[in-house]
Amino acid sequence: MSEVATTATATRRIGERAKGWFSPRRIGAIYVWIGFIILFTILSPDQFPDYATVKQILNEYAVTLLVALGLLMPLAAGLYDLSVGSVMGLCGIGSAWFLAHVSPNPWLALAAGVAIGLACALLNVVVVIVMRVDSFIGTLATSSIYAAIVIAVSGSNTITQNVGGTFQVDFALKNVAGLTAPVGLMIAGVLGLAFVLEKTAFGRRVYATGFDAEVARLGGVNVGRLRAVTLLVSAFFAALAGVMQTAALGAGDPTVGPAYLLPAFAAAFLGATQFRAGRVNPWGTAVAGLLLGTADVGLLLAGAPEWAPSIFSGALLILAVSLTRANIRDRFRQLLRTGSRQRGGNLDRAEPTPQGSLQGG
Amino acid sequence: MEPETGKDMRSMEGCASDGGFARPSGGTAAGPATTTLAIDHVSMEFDGRRVLRDVNLSVRAGTVHGLIGHNGSGKSTLVRILAGYHRPTAGSCWIAGERVPPGSPAQVKRLGLRFVHQDLGLIPEFTSLENFGIGGEYPRTRWRTIDWREQARRMRGVFEMLEQPMPKNRPVAELTAVQRSLVAIARAIGARPEESGTRFLVLDEPTTALEASEAQHLFAVVQRLAKANIGTIFISHQLTEVLNLCSAVTVLRDGQVTGTLETEHATRALLVEEMLGKETAAAESGMKHHRSGPVRSAGEARPPALAVRGLRSASLRGVDVDIAPGECVFVVGLAGSGREELVYALAGAVPAQTERLEVAGTPVRSMSPATARKMGVALVPGNRLPGSLVADFAMRENLTFASLETVTGVVGAVRRPRETAAARSWVERLDIKPTDIEFGSRFMSGGNKQKVVVAKWLSITPNAMLIDEPTAGVDVGAVTHLFATLRQFADAGGALLVSTSELGDALALADRVVVMSEGRVSRVLVRGEDEFSEQALLLAMVEGSTTESGNPVVPRP
Known about the structure:
The complex is a heterodimer of chains A (361) and B (557).
Chain A: H1 2-21, H2 24-43, H3 51-76, H4 84-101, H5 106-130, H6 135-154, H7 163-173, H8 181-199, H9 201-211, H10 213-218, H11 223-249, H12 261-272, H13 282-301, H14 308-323, H15 325-344
Helix pairs in contact in A: 2-13, 3-8, 3-9, 3-11, 3-12, 3-13, 4-5, 4-6, 4-11, 5-6, 5-11, 7-11, 8-9, 8-11, 9-11, 12-13, 12-14, 13-14
Chain B: H1 5-18, E1 36-46, E2 49-60, E3 64-68, H2 75-83, E4 90-95, E5 98-100, H3 105-110, E6 113-116, H4 128-133, H5 148-161, H6 177-189, H7 193-196, E7 200-204, H8 212-227, E8 231-235, H9 239-245, E9 248-253, E10 256-262, H10 268-276, H11 279-287, E11 306-313, E12 317-323, E13 328-333, H12 339-346, E14 352-353, E15 356-359, E16 362-363, H13 369-374, E17 377-380, H14 395-399, H15 416-429, H16 446-458, E18 464-468, H17 476-491, E19 495-499, H18 503-509, E20 512-517, E21 520-526, H19 534-546
Parallel strand pairs in B: 3-8, 3-9, 6-7, 7-8, 13-19, 13-20, 17-18, 18-19
Antiparallel strand pairs in B: 1-2, 1-4, 4-5, 9-10, 11-12, 11-14, 11-15, 15-16, 20-21
Helix pairs in contact in B: 6-8, 11-19, 16-17
């Protein structure tokens, strides 16, 4: 009797879990994605349902996704890295400059690009962690500096010397089933970040820091060091994206970079609403990025004007995030509470202390 | 717990017969010549818990009326009712014979009753003049912009009336503590009383943040207010202050007025007796023979789990504490005694310096939360305090957060089966509800959250646990379970240091109670040697705060 009952409960539990797994609240973006594929197939039946479309979406959006994946670590740790767009641009132009002036070796150029990215990360760390400038403002400021360096180095000219050679061949033309290096990097990035963020103790501490830095701090986490690491990760991904984009273009273009910032944030935020509600995560980001890419390519194939995809991705982001608005409202309320606590606390103390809220009869 | 059931019944009957809209009774009403603020048979219940019982209080214009009582005696609730934030369950307030509509801060203000709350409510980044204007009407220029000149004139008017120099027009964070208090008082008054209509002012513990000399300044101001015919309710823990400043004192205990005394006839001893109850008179004589002696299990050769000398921080001025393995020490103290900061300072969670700090015999040069965790010192903030739990985490993630190393494998990956097993075992051991370890921490009840916080730190098997307010917001059943868990931890050789405002907790669990005042240890009570009662603790707390000399008492020689 009881065994039967247990089995029945177990079955029901598995059923419930499966229902939870496929719930639109959890993976709504996937349903929307499927919807788009069907819609675009109807709109342009000759062009859209084709492997060429798949290749186009993946190859084009892999670079955006690299930037977006890089954002996940700082976002999970409660930091905004708004400099990734210009870091990407600087690393891209830097690798082109390296090819033209130092060595045509593609791997050294890649290393140079990454090194520039890490140097940018160090400046970000100094500003945001050491000098304690709010990350939103601090990285906005450093991004302006990086953008200026791009102009200074390139003189606003495109660098083409040696860029179109083995460099482009290695990083943009060689392919497996039509998929180029950025796609491989993107897949590696998703897997790597999924491991670090979701499987390791470090990842757990990153999330804790983002949700409640005070709990993390009192729990023995060196919040400053952890956040510094996350800024290195975001710059590393941005650097890879920059180098890959230079290879794809076959030229160091000084205007590349900043335009990737918004789509990357859109993918990261949209991704946070998927799979692990409220937590930025690589799976959701990948789905969100591919969804945006599908819509982009699909709309253009269907003959929509060039500005349509931007309107579309903006609207989609607002919609997706508003679906988890309860969560955001909570966060906002928490923010307000923190603010009033700091104001109400002892004015002599520079830092808000845990017992600030305790005082009072 | 409640020996006063008889009294209870009587007060409830009184309320029932009076109903919610009683006229002020003869005792509290005053003649038409003098303006009076009257609190008339006010009772207050929260969720069936009676916080105020039939409180009567009357203040004449131009007098200073003291209001004293231990933490939790209902002072704050009374102030909030006066301010219109709470509607009393029964009774009402009157100003000059006009009934104050309950629950209407705007009406309260119109009737001339103003407040300076304990935290002052100033915005640190705003200048004194900007702060002066918050919450009031701004004078406008012809172009509808704020007329700062006129505003400054008004503010100067108030300071002239108070006979105090006008503070510099700088961000108030740069002003001295007493200047900030003055800005807050000036703002409450708004303008010269004849212009603004201020008739009564409530000062909620205005001296807690002030040095003795600064407090003198404030007293002068309060006396000036009385001369300007403003009546003041002065709330304080400092009995001497109240005796010197006020013409009458009302004492609250457990939500009831135990008496209103003319200060001419009152003594400190009398006030203490009113505050703590008659039984304390006996306790007081017993306390005189206090000495600090050795703690239980003196034969033990193990070094103290935690030993600190000369701990200083923003509110601590040299604290020495030893906690032996297996010992349970509670820290108590009035608001502002430094009690609130002690555990955080010990764990290095707030800026602090020590002359010497040893954990289980190992010296620690500089303490930080990370070092504390490594050394096996757990800091457990109460579940309602910042820093206790990640609300967005599942219960499992919170339970294992401090001890992730114990559930990770070779490549640094958390081994989920091990983590799940660990979390499950804590849920079982502490009887945490719900039992689903994936449950969102945000949605748990206070008692269960607290169990999770405690379990999180027990799982690092600490040498010492430093706990702040373990029972705040925790229901009775969970408290019993928590205490059993903590007792078990101590019996297994763990050291406990618990900071609390609940004296009952200390009595239930402590081997030793450290009483703090003015940033120092003012007294140590040892179970079995000193009298262990709520009265004894209260008395030690109140005495500590009113005696002139604050010689630090080393808990153990």
